Amino acid sequence: MEKLPRYRKGLAVYAFVLDCSVAISWFMPDERLDFNFLDQVVEKGVIVPSLWSLEIGNVLLIAERKKRITLEQRQKALHILTELPIVIDIMTANHAWLETMELAERHNLTLYDASYLELSLRRSLPLATFDKSLKKAAELSGVCTEL
C-alpha cells in the first residue's frame, strides 16, 4: 500500500528539503555517500523546488558526457529517483522574483540555490545540502542543516 504524506495544518509534512548535491551523491562513484539522508527520504519523504528535476537531469547528463558515469548509470539513477517519495513544490516559481531573489542577493547565492533555501524557510523544514555556500546561508537564516 502506498504511503501518503503526513499532514500538519493542511500541509504535507516532509523530513526535509532535498538539495541536488545530496541526491547526486548517491549516484556518483567519486562523491561521498550519505545513506542517512537516503534512509530518511525513503522513510518520510522530502520536498524539492520545481527546478530540481532539471538540475538533477543536467548534472547526470554532464557527468555522463564527462565519463564520470555511463548511460546505463544515468538511466538507473533517474529510474531510482522517480521511485522515491520526492515531491515537487509547485509554488517555487511564485516566489522566484521576490523572496527567492532577495535571499540570493542577501547571501550571494545563485537563484537556483536560493530556491532551496526559500522552500526550507516557507515550509519550516531543514535543508539537506553538501553545498557550502548554501549551507552557510541556511544557517544564517535559521534553517537547520544538521539532520
Detailed description of the structure:
With about 150 residues, the chain is mostly helical. The protein has a single domain, classed as 5'-nuclease (Rossmann fold, 3-Layer(aba) Sandwich), CATH 3.40.50.1010. The protein is about 55% helix and about 10% strand. It is built from 7 helices and 6 strands. Strands 1-2 form a two-stranded antiparallel ribbon. A two-stranded parallel ribbon has the order 3-6. A hairpin with a 2-residue loop joins strand 1 and strand 2. Helix 3 packs antiparallel against helix 4 and helix 5 crosses helix 6. It is globular and about 40 Å long. The N terminus is likely disordered.
Helix/strand order, N-terminal first: EEEHHEHHEHHEH
| CATH fold assignment | Rossmann fold
Name the CATH homologous superfamily: 5'-nuclease
- How would you write the strand order of the largest sheet? 1-2
Keywords for this entry:
mainly alpha, Rossmann fold, two-stranded antiparallel sheet, 11% strand
Brief digest:
With about 150 residues, the protein is mainly α. Helices cover about 55% and strands about 10% of the residues.
Strand and helix layout:
Blueprint: E1 6-8, E2 11-13, E3 17-18, H1 20-25, H2 35-44, E4 46-48, H3 52-65, H4 71-83, E5 86-88, H5 92-107, H6 111-123, E6 127-128, H7 132-140
Parallel strand pairs: 3-6, 4-5
Antiparallel strand pairs: 1-2
Helix pairs in contact: 3-4, 5-6
